[in-house]
Each structure stands twice: as C-alpha cells, then as structure tokens.
Amino acid sequence: MINQYSQRKYIIGGLILLTGLILILRLFYLQVINSTYKLSAENNSKREVIQYPARGLMYDRNGVLLVSNQAAYDVMLTPGQLSRFDTLSFSKLLGISVSDVATGIKKARDYSRFAPTVFMKQVSGEVASVLQEQLYKFPGFFVQTRTLRKYPKNIAAHLMGYVGEVDKNLIEKNPYYQMGDYIGISGIEKNYEDILRGEKGKKNFLVDVHSRITGSYQDGRFDEPARIGNDINLTIDADLQEYGELLMKDFTGSIVAIEPTTGEVLCLVSTPSYPPDLLVGRGLSQNFNTLSGDSLKPLFNRALAASYPPGSTFKIINALIGLQEKVISPSTEFGCHMGYSFRGQFLGCHSHRSPLDLREAIQHSCNSYFVNTFRKIMEDPKFEATHDAYNNWRNHLLSFGLGNSMNSDLSGELKGFIPKDEYYNRYYGVGRWNFLTIRSLAIGQGELGVTPLQMANITAAIANKGYFMTPHVVKSIKGSDTINHRFTEKHIIEIDTAHFTVAIDGMDLAVNGGAGSTAGRAKIEGIIVCGKTGTAENPHGEDHSIFIAFAPRENPKIAIAVYIENGGFGGTWAAPVASLMIEEYLTGEVKRKFLEDYIFNAVIK
Fold it and tell me: Which residue of 69, 320, 378, 486 pairs with 147 in a disulfide if CB–CB is 3.0 to 4.6 A?
C-alpha cells in the first residue's frame, strides 16, 4: 500500500514538472522565437518605415541629364493599428469613395495584419501634407515618401524603358521586393535594375495613441540607412537622339548609330514612339493599355525586335565573301541587260552601263552582278555539294553577328534569321535545291531576316575593316572603373582585311561617284560618306527604304543604319535621313535646310 502511494507521488510530481517545462518552453517560443505578439505589442508604440532609395540617375555620353527623380507620396496602412475613424472625411480628403476605402482596408488585411501595405499610391504633395496634419484622426494610416522617374528631355523611351510595380510572381522569386515596390520593366531600367535600384533602408519611430510620430525609436539604434542607386552614363548622344526622333516623327521605322571602334550606341530611334513620362505615376496602367491597343504599336522597339530583309545593303556582304573565297576579284566584270537571266529564270535590274567591275557594281547596286557572284559562291568547285557551299557561306554571315543575338545590354533583342541548310532540305528535299532555288539571297531578299541593330553593327564592322565590338548603351557606372568585359573584346570577321578596302571604295562611289550613283542624296560637302542603299521587298505594301553608311572614310566616327517602312527606294528617304544624322553628329549643325525640309514634308502612304 505504501509502495503504491509512493509510486503515485512520483507520477504526479513528474506530470507537474512536465507541465511546467511545457509552459516555460511555450513562453520562450512566444517571447524569443516567435515575434508575432511582440510585434503586435510594439506596433502600438513603434512604427517601422521603409526608406526607399532614389534610383540612380541616367546621363548621356556628354553628361546631359536624361532621367532623374521626383518625390511621390504613398498612403500606407497597418491594419493591426486600425480603430474606428470617419471614413467619409477620409474618403473626401483622398478624393475616393467610401466603398473604395472599405475595399482598400480589406485588401490590406488580406495581405497582412501587421505589415504596412500601400493603401493608395502616389497622392499629390498637397494631399500628403494635409493628411500628415490629420493623421491623428485616422489611426493605422501614415504617409511614406518614395520617388518616381522624371525625364528632362522626354526622349529615348524605348532605350531607357520604364519602371512599374512588382507582381506576386516576382515577389515569390525575389524576397527583396515586397508588395507595392517598383522595378525596371524594360530597357535599361530592366537590364541594370540591380545597379539602379539601390538598397532599401528602414527607420523606427515612436508614435503616440493618435498615431503621431513623437521621435526616433531608441535613438535610431535599429535604423538602417537606404543606399541610393548608382548613376549611369549612357553611350548615346542626347542631341543626336533628339534630332533622330524629330526626323522620324512622320515615319515608321528606326535609326541605329554606333561608334565603330567602341561599339557604343550613339542613338537608337524607333518610331512611332511615345513620351516616356506617359509611363510614370498613377496614369501608368491606363496609358500602357492605350499604347498597347494602338494599331501603330508605339511600344514595339523596331530597332531591336523588327526583322527585315536587308535588301541591297546585303550585296556588300556577298561581295566580301566572294573575294574571300576567291571566286571573284576586284576587277571581275559581269554584264547586265536590265537583269539576270539563267535557265529560263529572270531577276530584273535598273538601267546602268554594262559590264561593271566590283566597285562599280556596288556604286550602281547591280542585281545581275551579285547574282552572278552568289552563283559562283554556291557552285564553288572546292565543295562537293550545294549544301556544303551554303554552310560555308552561312558561317561567314554568322561571323558578322547575323543570325544570333548581339548579346548587347539592350532588352528585347531579336536574333534575326539566317536559315540553316535543313530549312531548305525540309522544303525542297535533300539534294533537290541549288543556287537557282535560293538566288534571292544574292540581293538580300528571300528568307533572310536582320534587325536594324545588326545592320548598324555590320556597317561598323565594314568601317573597321574586319572587326566589331559588341554594341552597348552603358558607357560607365558610378563607383565602377570598368564596364562588362564582353564590351571590350574584338569580334574578328572571317574576311581578310584587304578585301574591305574594295567594298569601301564601292560605298564611297555610291555616295560621291556622281551620275548613276544610288546614294547621291547622302553626300555631305567636306565629309566623305561611304554608304549603300537597299530596297527591301514587302509583301504587305510598299517596299522598305534602307540605307547604311559610315563617315568619315578615314578614322570613322559613326556607322548608321536607317529603316523606313513603306518608304520605297533606299535613296529616297533612308539615305537623306542618315546623311542629316551624320552631319548633325560630326559637325554639330545641319546646314542643308533644303534636305531637312524635304524630310519634314515627307508623305509616306
């Protein structure tokens, strides 16, 4: 009996100890490990406010400010601090309905009871000031300052991109961002987000029962300062960019200009465009929807994402490949009788003297000459079959940067299209296609697709006589001495340097050779411009007007590609636009006002 009571004593004592241990562990968990209740209690007297850093500024290559910041004010809500308030006066103060207030509170509660949530974005400074004075009437609400983008010159919208609010998917992938944060959505804002955004900080404040800030919490011991974003100097020339957009205002198309020796993009114009300040602030969503629904597609960056046939500008490439493969020489002549005729097939050409050597063929853009050249490339006896010769020809194109992304620091860049031999095998059958089947490639037509950026890069490579640097738009970053190494590496083209001089001679003649030259409108007094026109067939309407050029001939400073959709012959519109851009960049002043008037009064159907 005594043993039985003795055992019960130990059992009861053990249960009491176990219960006590559970209570102690539970208190330890609630007070030390789980901070929910602690936060709830502290939030009655402490408020943590995120300090949003100003995004880095953007300047052009000459230090002209292109993107700055302006103050914006968000009305924040911590649902756990809410108590009864006058919703009618609150709604009138913010200019919204009572039902909007209720909806906003519910949305905030659904997100978190204790974390501050954006209740209303980007109220005016005047509203924010009045609300600050009356916050004691609206417990749980407070005003938080952040910045929005501002554009002093309102140009280069496609290049710079825009900033928008993060979505749930991004928040799940990247814990740095929270609901209501902003992030670069496109352009430089997107590609250099980590550099431009800076790092968020936080400040802790003491607040009274009326939700008014009374001072710093523990003298700022737990504060973390925000680090502003790094400034960026772009490679573009603001004056050239602005002038290009002015010249193209009535056209659909693009201009890309590059500094040949560095690969720095001097301007990147895509039209139709839009003022970048349309995609800032509370009007962003509505304006974006309007722009997205516009049939002219102003959001579409044609300079990077439009793929066109290169047209006759491509004849330069075939000339260089023909020289490299030794199937032609600079003195090789071919006749032209208003076109090329072979085995019942005919490809027309315009009127010019015949026969022509290579330099003259480039000058007059002779279709017959380059179809004959392409035939010799495809029927080169050192290759056993057409597809072997084709693959060799295609490899040359790839070395020019065609058929692949340029790996620039621009977002949305298209690869273009250089078909593989399998493409023709699939359509015509293995061994069932030859030079005649693909003869349109000789003059830059057929299945070829290139972007204006790629064409500008090819022009830079010709200007450099055999190499190019990866095109890029960021020149320097504050706090960093170097740019990405991929922008300082030369890409050597598989064509001997000597052959480029012959092609350049032809391009010089095309502009400066007098009667019969296809690009005479691009001539600039005192500056040797080397160029090539192109007319790209368009199955949906008038042909596209294309022109590539670089200047001056010796030590070139600018290489440029201009595409004008439905503009017809390359010499009609694209060549004058390119010429005016070159004059503006090299001299800082356009004297040929007659040519400006010609462009400004253009009518494209």
Answer: 69
Report the chain's mean pLDDT, rounded to a whole number: 88
Q: Angle at the Cα of 146 (from 145 to 147), degrees rounded to 5?
A: 135
Which pair of tokens denotes residue 592? 């040929």
CA distance 40 to 127: 29
pTM of the model: 0.85
Task: Tell me how many degrees the CA angle 337-341-345 measures, rounded to the nearest 5.
Answer: 145
Q: At what angle do helices 238-247 and 574-587 cross, to 10 degrees?
A: 160
405-436 pLDDT per residue, tens: 999 998 889 999 999 999 999 999 998 999 88
Per-residue model confidence (pLDDT) at position 39? 44
Lowest mean pLDDT among 140-144, 153-157, 506-510: 140-144
Asked whether the predicted pLDDT for residue 213 surpasses 90, the reply is no
Q: Give the fold, CATH level 3, of 46-234.
A: Penicillin-binding protein 2a (Domain 2) (3.90.1310)
pLDDT in tens, 307-336: 999 999 999 999 999 999 999 999 999 878
Count other Cβ atoms within 10 Å, centred on residue 148.
18
Task: Return the residue matching tokens 């440029």.
Answer: 560
| Number of helical H runs and strand E runs in the chain | 21, 20
d(CA 330, CA 362): 11
Task: Name the token pair of 182.
Answer: 């902003």
> 147 with 72: CB under 8 angstroms?
yes
What are the strands, taking DSSP E only, across 408-554? 467-469, 474-477, 490-492, 530-536, 544-551
Q: Both tokens of residue 228?
A: 């502003």
The pLDDT > 70 percentage for the chain reads: 90
Task: Report the distance separating Cα 371 and Cα 415, nearest Å.
Answer: 26
CB 149 within 8 A of CB 280: yes
Strands 58-59 and 232-234: parallel
- Distance from C-alpha of 136 to C-alpha of 128, rounded to nearest angstrom: 14
Domain boundaries along the sequence of the chain: 46-234, 238-293+303-600
**Three-point CA angle 460, 455, 568, nearest 5°:** 130
Tens digit of each residue's pLDDT (9 = 90 or more) over 570-591: 989 999 999 999 999 999 999 9
Task: Please name the residues in contact with 532: beta carbons below 8 A apart, sequence gap of 6 or more.
Answer: 312, 313, 315, 316, 362, 365, 506, 507, 510, 518, 519, 547, 548, 549, 570
Mean pLDDT of 237-245: 98
Homologous superfamily of the 238-293+303-600 domain (CATH): DD-peptidase/beta-lactamase superfamily (3.40.710.10)
